[in-house]
């Protein structure tokens, strides 16, 4: 899907890791939410409360889920999931454009 219709967007940006990750929250009519953002070149660790589905719009990243030793590579058009109450490491060498869906 190239766009989200009939949504509300929070104006205040979510800025994490000294500006290395910037996103905006999108609220859907059914009460679910997603964030749309970018991660600038870096290696970061995110903690999750709810399960997440990460959708890569542009760029390439390497991801290592909590408890795993291997990194997996994802690029434009690919997705990965992260369990709730968990974490993941993500490494980007170019700006990553993503959508994160909270499940």
Give the helices and strands, then pairings.
Elements: E1 8-9, E2 14-16, E3 21-27, E4 33-39, E5 42-48, E6 52-58, E7 60-65, E8 72-75, E9 79-82, E10 86-92, E11 96-102
Antiparallel strand pairs: 1-3, 2-3, 3-4, 4-11, 5-10, 6-9, 6-11, 7-8, 7-10
Label this structure with key terms.
103 residues, 7-stranded antiparallel sheet
Q: Tally the beta strands.
A: 11
Summarize the main sheet.
7 strands, antiparallel
Uncertain segments: none
The helix fraction, in percent, is under 10%
Number of helices: 0
Based on Cα principal axes, name the global outline. globular
Q: How does the helix and strand content classify structurally? A: mainly beta
Characterization of the model:
The chain has 103 residues and is mainly β. Helices cover 0% and strands 59% of the residues. The relative contact order is 0.27.
Would you kindly provide a brief summary of this structure?
The chain is an all-beta fold and 103 residues long. The chain is built from no helices and 11 strands.
């Amino acid at each position: 899907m190239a766009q989200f219709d009939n949504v509300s967007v929070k104006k205040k940006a979510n800025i994490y890791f000294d500006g290395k990750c910037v996103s905006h929250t999108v609220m859907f009519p059914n009460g679910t939410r997603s964030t749309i953002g970018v991660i600038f070149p870096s290696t970061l660790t995110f903690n999750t409360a709810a399960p997440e589905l990460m959708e890569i719009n542009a760029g390439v990243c390497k991801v290592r889920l909590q408890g795993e030793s291997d990194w997996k590579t994802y690029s434009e058009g690919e997705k990965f999931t992260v369990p709730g109450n968990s974490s993941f490491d993500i490494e980007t060498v170019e700006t990553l454009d993503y959508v994160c869906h909270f499940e």
